[in-house]
What does this fold into?
Amino acid sequence: MIKIVPIILLTTLFSGCNTTNKANIVLDNKEKIKALDTTPKVIGIGGIFFISDNLKESREWYAKNLGFEINAWGSSTFESRNVNKPEKVNSLQWTPFKKGSTYFAPSKKEFMINYQVQNIEGLVSKLKENGVSIVDSITTFAYGKFIHIMDTQGNKIELWEPIENKDKH
It folds into this structure.
């Protein structure tokens, strides 16, 4: 009887460890599934754009008062880590545009939000099925794919799917 008790205790102990390992495997698999998700959807904010009466004054004010570092494009880049892929760096662009710019057209608003998306082609198909007003077609640059749509309130929205750069982490 004395020999049986330690065996039962060891079996219970190892069973508990095995359950923990199974839980970790399930969590790891959920993360892998999440990483492989290609559902067409918005996954973040890619940029905040607005019209400025005086670009120089706006940029200087934001730099002086809020510490924005203005880059060569006249914007500021904010970087963060992707929660689901910590090795991946996300960026958000803050950019003022000169009054009179037609970049926001056909919207009459003085701002535009850029949403970062995954599977831009799939999302555009879904938007077309839903009757969303598509302003242009997908355009590809070295830093990503873009398309513009209009919401029901007349706001132009820029959708951006970054091109994965394997060298940049």
